[in-house]
Amino acid sequence: MSGIRGALLVGGTSSDAGKSLVVAGLCRALVRQGVRVAPFKAQNMSNNSVVTPDGGEIGRAQAFQAYACGLEPSTRFNPVLLKPGGDRRSHVIVRGRPAGDVGARDYISRRAHLLDVVTDELASLRADFDVVICEGAGSVAEINLRSGDIANLGLAQAADLPVVLVTDIDRGGSLAHLFGTTAILGAADQARIAGYVINKFRGDVGILEPGLDELQALTGRRTLGVLPFDTELWIDAEDSLASPVGRRVGPPHDVVPVSGPRLSVAAIRLPRISNSTDVEALACEPGVDVMWVDDPASVRVADLAVLPGTRATLADLAWLRERGIDAAVAERAAARRPVLGVCGGFQMLARSIDDPVESIGTAHDGPVPGLGLLDLDIVFRPDKVLRQVTGSGAIGAAGEHRISGYEIHHGRVVRSAEQPWIRDDVHGAEGARRGSVMGTHWHGLLASDDFRRTFVREVAVAVGKPDFATVPDLRFDAVRAAQVDRIADLVAESVDLDAVCDIIVGGADPALPQITHALRSGRR
Description:
By secondary structure, the chain is an alpha/beta fold. It folds into two domains: 259 residues, Rossmann fold; 218 residues, Class I glutamine amidotransferase (GATase) domain (Rossmann fold). It is built from 15 helices and 27 strands. The strands form six sheets. It has a seven-stranded mixed beta sheet. Strand 22 and strand 23 form a beta hairpin. Helix 1 packs across helix 14 and helix 5 runs parallel beside helix 7. It is globular. Keywords: Cobalamin biosynthesis, Glutamine amidotransferase. Pathway: Cofactor biosynthesis; adenosylcobalamin biosynthesis. This is Cobyric acid synthase. Catalyzes amidations at positions B, D, E, and G on adenosylcobyrinic A,C-diamide. NH(2) groups are provided by glutamine, and one molecule of ATP is hydrogenolyzed for each amidation. GO terms for molecular function: ABC-type vitamin B12 transporter activity; catalytic activity.
């Protein structure tokens, strides 16, 4: 594959069709062949984000795809990020920096300017890399949004990109989705659809093949690959939409078999959850079972309760109270059963929260009482903290461990009477601890292996399971790398990579037919 140059847009027939996974797999598969590859998503809508080395903010999926390429995350890979809030508005990030809040109609009017931003960034990446694999957003068939589109076929037309459509067959109706998505597009957009990929197929592909042959006869486009449903894939490439209540986080079985007691973790599935992937590292620890929950009973009985991040701290705090989960968390603290709060979850543990920033448009007037489990106060400020961080963390008498993570938050601790939980190398004390209640603004903290293991062992002792054993040589980065390689293996084994490379270099076949029918009469 030496000498290959070009770009491709991986679009979807729906949200969560598998675009992020296919992009990551294609990136890794091409990198293995010696191709210099970069990922790109012009516009992402997600509350799952990471901080780049230069202090910018991008969607986590693009950081994951950059990892698949062997690259550090960069704002170049995701120039526009929308973070939905609690009042039908979204926080806009442009080239990694906050650019205000907008409603849906306001944002539509801003997209013309943003098209220049995304096409400039894509052109820059194409100059610096052999291949750029772009990811679309949602469905490419959202014709109500086609005018001014910057993420799907609007980007494909502006940057002259061929498009491969991905569909999730596990949802049912995929052949109709592929046909209908292609047919509903205008002639110029249809001409960019070069082929199809089917994701999450269960069973014998031979049974599916007659349908694929008929689909090709109807559309002129071939199916380039059928990816099997794989229960061993568990690291989320995108955001919390794929993290429903009742879902077990982590591998379907222990990475390393263990015997003896197990630890249960209740990760509270907040309505506006952000950075839900913070619990992935915890879930890879053998003997630790992490489950998304939204009821008080599950919070009470678990060995550890986790309050994750949120894009609307006060709105999600009100939700906790409506469900009685606040009382369950308080009961845990009184019984000295471990509670961990991360970012917005940490802020909820405070005595008071004053948020004139993210709660604009809600019935909020001045400070609001928090859960009161940590003696500190939180005040939100317009300027956002965005930074990668390193430091040390001490748990019990186990000594200090080197740790790293990143911060994304408007809320600040303005007063604290608690013991700091973490020592930031640059900014000093961070987080707080009172007995079994611990909190921090740091995302990614539990990916620090020694710290995570010590934390897990302390939880085990606190809940009366002192003989719980961790695995000393388990490295989360190795687990994550194995997941990326597994995705690449699936793509390499199930997708015609030679055909994909031909599309990257030469674009869609100009002889591909347009699908026309009576319902399209009069459309462009």
